[in-house]
Amino acid sequence: MIPGQFQYYRPATTAEAIGLMAKLGDDARPLAGGHSLIPMMKLRLATPEHLIDLHGIDSLKGIRREGDRIVIGAMTTQHDLLASDEIAKMLPILHETSLLIADPQVRYMGTIGGNVANGDPGNDMPALMMTLGATYHLEGQGGIRQVPAAEFYQGAYFTALEPGEILTAIAVPAPAANHGYAYEKLKRKIGDYATAAAAVVLTMSGGKVATCSIGLTNLSETALLADEAAKAVVGTSLDDASLKRAAAAAEAIMSPAGDGRGPPEYRKYVGGIMVIRALQRAAARAK
Amino acid sequence: MAKTHVTMKVNGAEVEGLVEPRTLLVHFIRENLQMTGAHIGCDTTHCGACTVDLNGMSVKSCTVLAVQAEGAEISTIEGMANADGTLSALQEGFRMMHGLQCGFCTPGMIVRAHRLLQENTSPTEEEIRFGIAGNLCRCTGYQNIVRAIQYAAAKINGVEFQEAAE
């Protein structure tokens, strides 16, 4: 399978890339890791006339601390995230989740920016970024907009990105030092998208949940924040009744498609179980 | 569509060619360079038979454009043998441990395992299995592939290969 014809551009700066996006219009697509876009182009499900490769832009790569936030360049790969001591220490859930994405070869190429910007409900990073309260930096000719991850996703492959804009960085507030975390992903095999997955970040105080945030992957048209489920466990010791209430509250907002991963009823059921497991594992890790 | 001139270093040799932007790296290597060791298996980024080493990364060359490899250093299975033509530790491991049956996945397996052993000189069995998770083999059940990589790691580290008790 070979993609349709296109013109290839490799800008050296973000400004140059944004200029190209503005000039070339709707027929242009930015190329990040390419491991979603190139397969789609090979199937001719995507037929951009202009491909703007972001790999030549050094400023889009890297992880840096800015006050109480960790700012990750959009072209930072999953492999880079896994190699980063800063991520392992400050955002261990990002390390844990990166290990569950695709396979080693794909992680060398796949970028965090591509993962969150593509709007694919099967991608793992969107729910995680919503759970962490991350903000996306969207750059266009009008300047930089900062959009919370929780407000970015509008539907499958529909996002808040305006024509001509490129997602350039992700800013994640550093979680509390004593936080607990877990990303629970049920998948049929390595490299598969989640049948259902849940991200949990919480803090404990005196054996009870003090704060909690829960995100869900591949259980709706977009990643979801399960606010009611999180509220159901705050103030509890995660006893069985509270866990069941949280799972039920999470299931109430799920609307997964039926596909090879199972019918909707099954995916909702295991989605609830992922929530329970993630809550328990996160609580065990909280200090 | 106008063709683009690309240059890259493949197995230590400077190569160049004219490609359309849509030419996949695996096609450039197989058809322009006539190196047919990297195989096209699934053509959908799953199987890993097309794995090559690109600037120190294992990549599936069916999902990389040749133009993206401009200026890159690439190693393929053709570049894995020792400089004197003898088998590398990994190739020897695959031979000695019977790490292949039909052999279709083997170039990708060896190129991937090469990078794995560069990054982790003494991987555990679990780390080997996780490290080759992007390479599918439909013959061996992976047992002997894992042994082959353990054999190579032992040889590279200068220790005697000891098979784990079953």
How does this model look, in words?
The complex is a heterodimer of chains A (287) and B (166). With 287 residues, chain A is of the alpha+beta class. Helix content of chain A is 35%, strand content 26%. Chain A contains eleven helices and 14 strands. In chain A, helix 2 (37-42) links the parallel strand 2 and strand 3. In chain A, helix 9 (227-233) runs antiparallel to helix 10 and helix 10 (240-253) packs across helix 11. The longest helix of chain A is centred in the last third of the chain and has 22 residues, at 264-285. The radius of gyration of chain A is 19 Å and the shape is globular. Chain B is of the alpha+beta class and 166 residues long. Chain B folds into two domains: 4-79, Beta-grasp domain (Ubiquitin-like (UB roll), Roll); 89-156, [2Fe-2S]-binding domain (DNA polymerase, domain 1). Chain B is 31% helix and 15% strand. A five-stranded mixed beta sheet of chain B has the order 2-1-5-3-4, with helices on both faces. The longest helix of chain B is centred in the last third of the chain and has 14 residues, at 106-119. Chain B is elongated. The chains are: A alpha+beta (287), B alpha+beta (166). The A-B interface holds A 1-8, 10, 34-35, 38-39, 41-42, 51, 53, 55, 79, 102-106, 108-109, 190-191 and B 1, 4, 20-24, 27, 43-46, 48, 51, 57-60, 63-65, 67-68, 70, 112, 116, 130-134.
Low-confidence runs of chain B (pLDDT<50, min 5 residues)? Answer: none
CATH superfamily of the largest domain in chain B: Beta-grasp domain
What's the shape of chain B?
Answer: elongated
Beta percentage of chain B is 15-25%
Largest sheet of chain B: 5 strands, mixed
CATH topology of the largest domain in chain B: Ubiquitin-like (UB roll)
Structural class of chain A: alpha+beta
Count of the separate structural domains of chain A: 3
- Number of contiguous helices of chain B: 5
